Amino acid sequence: MRIIVLGGDGFCGWPTSLKLLDEGHDVLIIDNLVRRKIDKELGSNSLTNISDPDQRIKVAKAMIGGNIDIVNTDINNYDELLDIISVFYPDTIIHFAEQRAAPYSMINSTTRRYTVDNNITNTHNILSAIVEVNPDIHLVHLGTMGVYGYSKEFGDIPEGYLNVKINSTEKDVDILYPTNPGSVYHMTKSMDQLLFQFYNKNWGLKITDLHQGIVWGTQTEQTRKHETLTNRFDYDGIYGTVLNRFISQAATGNDITVYGIGGQKRAFIHIEDTARCVALAVQNPPSKGKVRIFNQVSEVMSVKQLAELCAESYGGTIKYVDNPRKELAENDLSVSNEGLKSLGFKPITLNKGLVDDVKFIAEKMKDNLNVNNILTSPKW
Amino acid sequence: MRIIVLGGDGFCGWPTSLKLLDEGHDVLIIDNLVRRKIDKELGSNSLTNISDPDQRIKVAKAMIGGNIDIVNTDINNYDELLDIISVFYPDTIIHFAEQRAAPYSMINSTTRRYTVDNNITNTHNILSAIVEVNPDIHLVHLGTMGVYGYSKEFGDIPEGYLNVKINSTEKDVDILYPTNPGSVYHMTKSMDQLLFQFYNKNWGLKITDLHQGIVWGTQTEQTRKHETLTNRFDYDGIYGTVLNRFISQAATGNDITVYGIGGQKRAFIHIEDTARCVALAVQNPPSKGKVRIFNQVSEVMSVKQLAELCAESYGGTIKYVDNPRKELAENDLSVSNEGLKSLGFKPITLNKGLVDDVKFIAEKMKDNLNVNNILTSPKW
Asked: Are B268 and B213 in contact (CB under 8 A)?
């Protein structure tokens, strides 16, 4: 297939692009490299050294083979996006091109507005361009489990749609899950769902929305093939995801900092599974009908469990700090991931080999770690 | 009270501003006058002659008295918006500053993208500025009945929230009504709801969302006070609302053009009631708690009923044309408007005096009517 990966230079986008290349697809990455710029803005950094995009592409072609390229542009430039889609004429577009950190979206009015304007305009530009160029293109979007919220009010978490009885009519219907986002970032993903719903209804677009859990790990089968292909690894309070932060804290002799009492149960997925799930969705486009929503998750754990696991395995002291986020101190969670499983997904669960892999990287790169970046989350 | 009216030069915004002025409030209008520019773009026009904004303000001060002013700026300029709110320091902000025509939003990718970018950025800028300047400001937003969709699937239309039983838990809950917008424009109002929900939850903002029916009429008690205060009157296929279009067609000897079989039942409200309802919401801000949603409607009629009424009263032939919109050919509709009634709203229903008022204007201004503008709706 011919596949455009929007945001293909990022933490999830890059390993997914390589996975698709490895499976024999022709891949065109479009990225404005803003994530690299935000590192400069925040004074944060990837723990791993990440190569220049052009270097990455050169080595990917040499080590994996096939067709891959990158265009450095911002898809808020609609005419440029339209030109690229018209010329490359993809079967599938994968959309990672959103500001993806909840804490970043909650720093101040500038980051709030950037997150809303960037994410909504990008998602809508893509939909509008698909209508114009070829309504048969399959759009695969990376959503988030965070749209559901984490209360048990609506029971176990289904995949995108909730079965309810309308009390006034006594009819059973499936409705789009009533979202309860916990940050401006998560709110934009809830808004994306309404864009997808309407473009699917009015123009029949084929859309897969993958509500992903919290990603951990850094390397995949493909990024390990050469140092230049190494994926980025965030450990800071803004972009670092919780398990990666814990492992790097433990590996570098720092306290493991848990927000609140760590009673937040969350769904997790290894970066290798991110790439595999997206590839599965691409290979199996949805039939006509409503937007297809899958939960892209491997297992559910509490934050406290993760911290204890890291402390036991690698030493380090757990330090409980005030939770900067407005969220429940404790919650139960049960999530369906039957959709991707039905396509053949076999989740990788937390295992020592993979955790050791992350620890190895954290130890090896410990000179890159700036302790001041660990507790940088804004309070909201 | 000190009130900012965003979009206060428009069809609903202008008579509402005058109503609030007449009730003794201090009114500051902010408007980028884009609606006047769109007339030039489309080659459309208001049937009535509308005066320059500065003239309107001058005459409003003379005829009604009190404090009213206008600033010509675009609130997508956040810093300017922030400055104005900080200096004027309003108790209430009323938000009419959105692209408001479903047909306009469906013309092409440029108008689709303009509608999304303009409406979402504006709504979010306002919310973000309220958080920054004074979270106690009451935001009153003009939403639309169109967010509900017009199927009977969910029973009679309640006010914003729907009572359902979650089948997996057997618990009864009120959820935000699962929206089913029929155009890109209506979709943006559905997205606005998610912005309101989150800003209310996270920062406790006081928000009233008024889901308005289709407005008809043109003059109000205040706009009648002087020719310079006359409200705009759209009769074209893009911005003209259905009853106004029918009356002006009948009054000028043209066919009354009904989309499809006219079986669409819709909720209607006279422009005088728009101003009265907004004034009621302003005078009675919500207590803390979730977003307050009212249906701002006076009565339900079918499009065919309206056409027949116009044909009987004023002559003219009804012509049924292909419906350019994707919507049900026929639907039933029952809408609650208890919220505004509980604040004292007494709906004006369709009556001969008011219809004659519109007819008089249409006849008097018939030289302004360009027949080519009547069937200009895009197909979607």
From this structure: yes
Which residues pair with residue B265 across a beta bridge? Answer: B302
| Residue A199: per-residue pLDDT | 98
Contact B178 A176 (CB under 8 A): yes
**Is A214 within a domain?**
yes
The Cα angle at residue B312 between residues B311 and B315, in degrees rounded to 5: 55
Residues of chain B positioned with their CB less than 8 A from the CB of A124: 112-113, 116-117
Mean pLDDT for each 10-residue chunk of chain A (380 residues)?
98 98 98 97 96 98 98 98 98 98 98 98 98 98 96 92 96 96 98 98 98 97 98 96 93 94 96 98 95 97 95 91 94 96 96 89 92 93
**Count of structural domains, chain B:** 1
User: Could you tell me which of B189, B210, B239, B196 has the C-alpha nearest to residue B142?
Assistant: B210
With a cut of 90, say whether residue B152 has pLDDT above it.
Answer: no
Residue A248 lies in a domain: no
Domain assignment present for residue B109? The answer is: yes
- Find the closest chain B residue to A82 by CA distance: B109
Residues of chain A positioned with their CB less than 8 A from the CB of B190 = 194
Chain A partners within 8 Å of B380 (Cβ): 202
Catalytic residue among B144, B230, B241, B274: B144
Is residue A75 a contact partner of residue A125, using CB atoms and an 8 Å limit?
Answer: yes
**ipTM reported for the complex surpasses 0.90:** yes
**What CATH number corresponds to the domain at position A47?**
3.40.50.720
For CA atoms B108, B110, B113, B117, the dihedral sign is negative
Query: B198 to chain A: which residues are within 8 Å by CB?
Result: 181, 184, 187
Which candidate in B185, B199, B235, B259 is catalytic? B185
**What is the domain range of residue B109?**
2-234+271-297+336-347
Q: Please tell me which residue in A150, A185, A235, A239 is annotated as part of the active site.
A: A185
Cα distance between residue A129 and residue A78, in whole Å: 8
Asked if B190 lies within 8 A of A194 by C-beta distance, the reply is yes
Let me know if B189 is a catalytic residue.
Answer: yes
B259 located within any domain: no
Q: What is the mean pLDDT of residues B142-149?
A: 97
